[in-house]
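Supplementary notes for students who missed Thursday's class. We covered one full example, reproduced here. Read the sequence, then the structure, then the short commentary at the end.
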Amino acid sequence: MPSTRGCGPNRHRPIWSSATTMRDAIKSEPPVCGLIDLTRYPIDRLHGAPIKDVVARCRSNLAAHGCSVLPGFFAPGLDSMQREAARLAPQAYLEERCGNPYSSPDDPSLPASHPVRIFLKRTQGFVAGDQLPEVGCLKRIYRDPCFRTFIAMCLGLDMLHEYADPLGCLVVNVIRDAAEHPWHFDTGEFVVSTLVQTPEDGGEFEYCPNIRSPEQENFDRVGRVIRGEDRSEVRTLRLRAGDMQLFLGRYALHRVAPVKGRRPRLSVIFSYARRPGMIATAERSRLLFGRTADCHALDRSAAGRADTLID
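Structure (token representation):
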């Protein structure tokens, strides 16, 4: 039975919007060392000009494309991160099933060509957050205050919280030979991830930035992409191991193309939220992990959604 201790918002510490408070926190709890390239990305000096330049580039890329890649961000810690992810990979929930881009039930009242009614085979697996070791390097990064502060700065936010979902807060995505992560939207407004092991071939990240908005689903545009009728909005990224990606995945349709070869594609997804108490729906949790936690029994309105979009 998965642990659900601390599902509520009280366990999630906000980052610091006050510069003085933030400096005091950094002095008392230094950033993760040996895992992040602090020369290129000095998150230990968050008030310096070099990191502000990085933040400005990230914000510009996110505004224009809904995605920003920081090359080699985790290069110093890549070996440790890859070893931890590889040890966890055999524990991934790998049930093969079909799902639509919204992880929602079928709606027979809609036309068969509607994206809600297009179910794609899901063959990738996830290691849930409660399966990761508390003292491992991945959770050290996820909980590091300087790392979260830097992410918040890149997103233009004053405060950032850990994702309240004990399963989906920090996960390892495992995609083996001939498997893929089909077209979908994320539950959270944004996701932070890193590829820690590249496959022998395939596994490109494809996305359609801002194809929907908090006010509009744009089913017609989404349907044309999923049905393979229009790739004009599709962007393709071939990420390298150790790159960090900031991505607005709630509004961008995206997928990982089929992987080829014996070496699986391993990535780590760090999920944060601008509001405390954010969780996935029980349906999405069952889809990704084959189980739920106690907090998924809450009414969906208690999850603190910022919109009324289909998940």
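Commentary. The chain has a mean pLDDT of 87. Residues 49-65 form the longest helix (17 residues). If anything here is unclear, bring it to office hours.
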